[in-house]
Write a structure and sequence with these properties.
Shape of chain A: globular
Radius of gyration of chain B: 23 Å
Distance between the termini of chain B: 46 Å
Order of helices and strands of chain B: HHHHHHHHHHHHHH
Helix content of chain B: over 70%
Strand content of chain A: 15-25%
Oligomer: heterodimer
Largest sheet of chain B: none
Strand content of chain B: under 5%
Chain lengths: ~525, ~300
């Protein structure tokens, strides 16, 4: 989703300083107790209600709650594997899904996992209508067939196995616990089935998990008893913490320092392809960008190699359309725009702008250095074509409001990251490029009925004929790349830093920056 | 001609003597003179930046990625930044936005604050009440927070940041000038002017304002430093100048991320902020000392 980097104000910076000042204490305490895993994160944990959470809480939720199925890390044979459901089947028309639940699972409040609890969990999420509840739109009816069998009737075919593996909005929780309400969750309680329970939470500072002794998976020697999430905004403090052993895991350190950390025998640097990409929407409703030749010219005018090698230090790859590298529905055979100013000049001349002569505004998230540098190198390149690019840093809200106001007066290029709610190409293609009557996330206002039809068809096939669906998704992306409604900049790599005595870490880009602490040993 | 000039000199003899005394006292104040030199040096550096650096295009923002993060060297005495730009060039160009923010904020604040303060002090009564309650409202907010609120409402640009800071600053001058005016209003020369039938606007312009300018000047000089700091703070959180325009605050903000590996990027603009702010403060102290020998003596 969006707005991950929407941390802006001085208040937040001050908070970070205060937290930073308090760290040595927490770190020492953590080092004394043996079986504590310390995850140092860069952003707050806004929401703990399992029906609403839709942001960085995912790093906590995945250790406390479980979905019916999990999405697998790349390289696995199947896309998904059992979670609270051990098996499932789908009817031939893709309209009825049946999940068989795991036996002997209890919620943290001691009540057993039943089909009725699954039904009530998902119905609560749907009824509240917040966060990622939209993933359940295709569901018409949920039936508890017997104690351990749940049946979903859909109103149109949809990949319910993928939906049930969503990183947001797919948690199964104790209906009794949920009766306490959202505020109860946010005080630092939970109603999950996962290996850890929320013990305490200090808003904006930390959150502590403790092991759930009756976890259905059982416990072995060497697994962690306690998990501490610490919020530290300043990347340099995070770096010092991982180097000093006060953190067991951290992320988002300056790319320039990756090599130094890699040379440190105490720190293990894990680099892998994420499902997050950066793109810049062209405003397709506003001249001169309403002309496809101008958009193509501007796509040829981007210095991709500089962006990848010099700004991102090689920790990203140039995008092939909007579906990120490594995800199903991505194809390396899709064409890419290359940096070619001559071709850009030709196209501009064809469109009637032989010497450029227009101005464009590039809006990006205040304080996001990658987006800023991406703009600065583009500015220099466009200047050679006689096009003036103004870089306008804004808060996410201000940037978004402007785009939603009036397309004809909105910014020319809207820069943002996208990552999937659940892993399907449809998440990228539908949200960002399907025509919308009122703009929401289609912030280049792209409108192509052929494209819409193609991806809707592919989505309907995803549950039953994934290969065919993938072909259609790739075909749709070809259409997009030709129409150039956006600059497809890069697919980002995640860089995670662990203490080298931690074993068992398998990164899974479907759950952004999540560490499944249950799998780890020290 | 001769007579006319002589008249002026005679009429202003006392004042000229006073200026000469102040000049001598100032020159004896080593710190103040050094501060003035530092400020002039930075100002000249900002004005003549394009001729002082071999990389004016980098000062204006042109990336030069092949030299990203070069450490300080003869070619780049302050090293290069995250986009390979010469940090010295950026610091020189950054002086343009930082120094002009400092100056303009103070000029705007003085221009708003001084007349209001004189009005409040001279008339008293409901005029005083009204103006003072308005200043109280502004002073009730922490200044940086108010500036941030105004700048984010207006949208971020150099001019808006400047206006936002100035708006949080003027009430201080109103208070200062009001206090001075309150006592001046009772002095004999003002009473005499009033008795002779001089009109009120003339009294304020001729007799009150010239006499409050010294404390205002002292205050303004030290405030330039604080205004530069506030401007840097605004740029630091992304509400000041737009990239790629160089700005000391923005450079420190970006550079701090790289401080462990590439300390020069944040250190040199940080040093510039430090030096200029300190210089303006010391200069303000110096001016106060020479303008008002009493405080100097009492301090010593």
């Amino acid at each position: 989703m969006f707005g991950k980097y929407g941390r802006v104000t001085g208040l937040v910076a001050m908070l970070a300083l205060m937290v930073a000042a308090s760290i040595p204490v927490g770190g020492q305490a953590a080092a004394q107790a043996e079986n504590v895993f310390v995850y140092v994160m860069d952003s707050t944990i806004p929401e703990l209600d399992p029906s609403i959470d839709f942001s960085n809480e995912v790093v906590v939720m995945t250790n406390v709650y479980e979905p019916l199925v999990w999405y697998n890390p790349p390289g696995s044979e199947e896309l998904v594997s059992p979670g609270l459901a051990t098996s499932w089947d789908v009817s031939d028309d893709g309209m009825t899904w049946t999940f068989h639940l795991r036996e002997g699972v209890t919620f943290h409040d001691g009540t057993p996992l039943t089909a009725e609890a699954v039904k009530q969990s998902i119905e609560r999420t749907i009824e509240m209508g917040q966060g990622a509840s939209f993933i359940w739109w295709p569901v018409e009816e949920i039936n508890a067939v017997d104690d351990l069998t749940v049946e979903f009737k859909l109103s149109y075919p949809a990949p319910l196995d993928l939906i049930a593996s969503s990183a947001y909005g797919a948690w199964i929780f104790s209906p009794q616990a949920a009766e306490n309400g959202t505020e109860w969750f946010n005080e630092g309680h939970d109603g999950g089935t996962g290996p850890y329970m929320i013990q305490s939470r200090e808003r904006g500072q930390n959150l502590v998990l403790t092991r759930y002794e009756d976890y259905w998976g059982g416990w072995e020697e060497g697994q962690f008893d306690t998990v501490v999430f610490l919020i530290v905004e300043d990347p340099l403090v995070r770096q010092q913490m991982i180097e000093a052993g006060e953190a067991d895991f951290t992320l988002r350190l300056p790319l320039e320092n990756v090599e130094t950390l890699d040379d440190n025998p105490d720190v293990n640097v894990v680099i892998f392809q994420s499902y997050q990409n950066l793109l810049g929407f062209f405003n397709t409703r506003k001249p001169p960008l309403d002309d496809v030749r101008v958009r193509q010219a501007l796509s040829y005018a981007y210095p991709y190699d500089q962006l990848i090698n010099d700004v991102m230090m090689g920790y990203a790859v140039q995008a092939h359309g909007p579906v990120p590298t490594g995800m199903w529905g991505h194809s390396d055979d899709l064409p890419q725009y290359t940096y070619d100013l001559d071709r850009a000049r030709e196209l501009l001349a064809e469109a009637g702008y032989p010497d450029g002569g227009f101005e464009l505004v590039w809006t990006y998230n205040t304080g996001n250095l990658d987006e800023e540098q991406a703009g600065e190198i583009y500015r220099a390149s466009l200047a050679e074509l006689g096009i003036e690019l103004t870089l306008q840093p804004m808060t996410w809200e201000a940037q978004w409001d402007w785009a939603l106001s009036d397309p004809e007066n909105a910014q020319d290029i809207f820069v943002m990251y996208w990552w999937p709610t659940y892993v399907t190409p449809y998440d990228f293609l539908f949200n960002m490029f399907h025509s919308e009557e009122e703009p929401l996330f289609n912030l280049g206002y792209y409108n192509n009925p052929d494209f819409d039809e193609l991806i809707d068809q592919a989505d309907a096939l995803t549950g039953t004929d994934r290969e065919r669906a993938e072909e259609l998704f790739i075909q749709a992306q070809e259409m997009l790349i030709e129409d150039a409604p956006a600059l497809f900049l890069y697919d980002e790599m995640n860089i995670h830093y662990l203490r080298s005595d931690i074993t068992g870490y398998v990164p899974n880009p479907a759950y952004a920056n999540v560490v499944f602490v249950y799998q780890l040993r020290r | 001609m001769q007579r006319w000039l002589g008249d002026i000199i005679r009429r202003n003899e006392a004042r000229l003597l006073e200026y000469r005394r102040m000049g001598r006292a100032f020159r004896r104040d080593v710190l103040a003179v050094a501060s003035l030199i530092v400020i002039i040096a930075f100002a000249l550096g900002a004005i003549f930046a394009p001729w002082l650096t071999p990389y004016p295009e980098q000062g204006e923002g042109e990336p030069n990625l092949s030299e990203k993060f070069s450490p300080p060297s003869p070619e780049h005495p302050f090293g290069t930044d995250n986009l390979g730009r010469d940090v010295l060039a950026r610091v020189l160009y950054g002086g343009r936005s930082s120094l002009s923010i400092g100056l303009m904020v103070v000029v705007i604040a003085v221009a708003i604050g001084t007349p209001l303060g004189a009005l409040a002090g001279y008339f008293g009564g409901w005029v005083d009440e009204l103006i003072m309650r308005v200043t109280d409202m502004f002073l009730a907010f922490p200044p940086l927070l108010l500036a941030i609120a105004i700048a984010s409402a207006l949208g971020n640009s150099f001019t808006n940041a400047m206006l936002a800071i100035a708006i949080t600053w003027w009430p201080w001058y109103t208070r200062l000038v009001r206090a001075q005016t309150l006592s001046l209003r009772e002095r004999e020369f003002v009473a005499a002017a009033r008795g002779m039938g001089v009109r009120t606007p003339t009294i304020i312009a001729r007799h009150i304002l010239p006499n409050v300018m010294t404390p205002v000047l002292v205050q303004a000089t030290s405030d330039i430093g604080s205004a530069i700091l506030t401007g840097a703070a605004m740029s630091f959180i992304g509400l000041g100048v737009r990239p790629p325009t160089a700005d000391w605050g923005a450079m420190v903000s970006t550079g701090r991320v790289y401080f462990l590996g590439q300390p020069w990027f944040a250190a040199f603009p940080g040093l510039a902020i430090f030096l200029v702010t300190l210089a303006f403060n010391l200069l303000g102290d110096g001016i106060r000392d020479v303008a008002d020998p009493q405080t100097r003596r009492s301090v010593q």
